Amino acid sequence: LKQMKANLKAYWTCSMPTTPYDDLLADYDGDKDFFFQAIDDLITDGTTAIETEKNQLKASKLWKKHLGGYFPEGEDADVDQRAKSLAETAATILAGKAKINNAGDIQDKSGVGHLPHKNFGGDEIS
What we know:
This protein is mainly alpha-helical. 45% of the residues lie in helices and 5% in strands.
């Protein structure tokens, strides 16, 4: 968005990338200051959504404000924390320390560790 804004400031043109390469801004007679303010607002909210907001629902509402009602809303959850938790679980599994507790959660403290099995498939039961 920042680069698009810089390009539009330098060259007030927006050509379609397909034939006949129509310039979408050729007949624009609106207020350019309002146009650039809207881009600045989108850049500000987009930066907040990506870099600051931890809650996916709140971040998606920032995008939706600019991109319209069809923009999907995210989960009401901290997706960064979930990703961190999944990465920690994956590291536990890959290190061979994973155990399953009574609730079925994978962790490394207590529970049943990985047990070898002989069910490798391919054998038919008669």
